[in-house]
Amino acid sequence: MAGDINKVILIGRLVKDPELRHTPNGTSVTDFTIATNRTYAIAGEKKEEVSFIKCTAWSKAADVIAQYCKKGQRIGVDGRLKQHSWDDPDGKKRSSIEVVIDNFQFLSPKSQSDGADYHGEAVTSNEYHEPGASEEKPFSDDDIPF
Question: Where are the domains of the chain?
Fold first, then answer.
């Protein structure tokens, strides 16, 4: 049986400044929301749809995003979807979906980034995986049979 795929790629603008926190063992976690816009036409009338997507970055990626990203800046992210489920105080089932960031790239012009050293560079968050995430190891040239 083939493996399932859970991959998301988004480009949007930060809705507010990212929020950095730390787990009890000191791992950095940054939460932020990006707005993505879609423009379409119905009967010749231009319409716009905005989606607000919650994102979470871990470890070095969390530190870099928290340090260099500000409200309104454009960012490209890729990662995977993660669903959270809980019962609210009234006993109703609730759920939410977020993007757990694997890689990101700043896309705003340098003048908006206050000279950030990381501007325009892709950053990979592969040195730490969120608790419970699978530990996939990258392959080497020796693994290729030809």
Answer: 8-38+48-129
Beta-strand relationship, 93-106 and 45-58: parallel
Q: How remote is the C-alpha of 58 from its chain's centroid?
A: 10
pLDDT in tens, 22-73: 999 999 999 999 999 999 999 999 999 999 999 999 999 999 999 999 999 9
- d(CA 105, CA 120) in angstroms, rounded, equals 6
According to CATH, the topology of domain 8-38+48-129 is OB fold (Dihydrolipoamide Acetyltransferase, E2P) (2.40.50)
Going by C-beta distance under 8 Å and a sequence separation of 6 or more, which residues neighbour residue 73?
13, 14, 106, 107, 108, 112, 113
Give tens-digit pLDDT for 91-135: 999 999 999 999 999 998 765 544 444 444 455 554 444 444 444
